[in-house]
Write a sequence for this structure.
């Protein structure tokens, strides 16, 4: 029987109803007691890293979870992290860089309805997560939710209420869990030892452009942050009605790292298609996310800037495919 460590962080899956709405209030041990089915699947221990609405989860909590996995890695066959859905895609991306090439599965799951709800999805998602984590062929950081298994670098929350909340962006789902069976579409080939990162440079921002938005926001962020992900329009680029171009140039010249991406959910960016993008691509020292999600670009830049501030080295790392995060290269 597999030995699994359950790591609780809060979220709807651990929520109780209060006068101010749902708040996390169930501990990791209490949560698993509501799903007795897993006793026949694994020998399980539980720890609590935090008990927060995932709106309040920060990159520091990603590091705490990664540290808990590092400290316990040799003692367990896999890990299940219960987490709020709102920022789960950010956490899964962050963990994909903090813990690379793991031959043991690291699974995140959560719920859209808490345990006390008549329509709760807690039991299904926890059972599916343990089904996947206990399988010999599972590896790496994955989200298991509503029967879908999604690479940690490719997940995005697409629905606020529906049970099938998460989609896999610009990449197929890795597998599906159907009862006790796993239907695999992509096989995990991780072998050897995991690579644990030493930390993250969390001084990275993300800004979404809007029509007519002034440049002062970009100016502030590029002055105060080491890196910035810019979500632009369509295939990507900078509007010409403001001083965006010169602001980005100044930031890049000052050693700041800028990633250009798109607000469009699918198919990614291509700065070469239109003039507002091509002048950025050809004239400025920037990185382009291509088919990478914004959540993943954000987390990857944090990982990179903890390693190097050199643009060429950062570029090489950014375009290195890590657990299916980018197909462009």
């Amino acid at each position: 029987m597999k030995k699994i460590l359950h790591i609780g962080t809060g979220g709807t899956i651990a929520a109780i109803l209060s006068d101010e709405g749902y708040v996390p209030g169930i501990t990791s041990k209490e949560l698993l007691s509501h799903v007795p089915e897993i006793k026949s699947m694994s020998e399980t221990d539980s720890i609590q890293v935090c008990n927060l609405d995932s709106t309040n989860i920060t990159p520091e909590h990603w590091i705490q979870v990664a540290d808990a996995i590092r400290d316990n890695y040799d003692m367990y066959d896999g890990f299940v992290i219960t987490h709020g859905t709102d920022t789960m895609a950010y956490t899964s991306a962050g963990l994909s860089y903090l813990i690379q090439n793991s031959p043991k599965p690291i699974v995140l799951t959560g719920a859209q309805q808490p345990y006390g709800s008549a329509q709760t999805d807690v039991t299904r998602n926890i059972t599916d997560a343990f089904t996947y984590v206990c399988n010999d062929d599972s590896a790496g950081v994955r989200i298991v939710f509503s029967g879908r298994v999604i690479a940690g670098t490719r997940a995005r929350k697409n629905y606020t209420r529906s049970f099938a909340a998460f989609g896999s962006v610009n990449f197929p789902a890795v597998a599906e869990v159907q009862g006790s069976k796993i239907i695999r579409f992509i096989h995990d080939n991780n072998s050897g030892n995991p690579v644990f990162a030493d930390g993250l440079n969390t001084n990275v921002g993300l800004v979404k452009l809007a029509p007519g938005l002034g440049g002062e926001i970009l100016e502030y962020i590029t002055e105060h942050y080491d890196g910035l992900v810019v979500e632009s329009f369509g295939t990507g680029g900078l509007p010409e009605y403001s001083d965006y171009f010169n602001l980005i140039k100044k930031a890049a010249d000052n050693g700041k790292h800028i990633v250009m991406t798109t607000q469009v959910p699918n198919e990614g960016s291509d700065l070469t298609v239109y003039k507002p993008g091509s002048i950025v691509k050809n004239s400025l020292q920037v990185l382009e996310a291509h088919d990478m999600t914004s959540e993943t670009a954000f987390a990857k830049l944090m990982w990179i800037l903890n390693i190097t501030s050199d643009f060429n080295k950062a570029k090489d790392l950014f375009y290195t495919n890590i657990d299916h995060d980018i197909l462009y290269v």
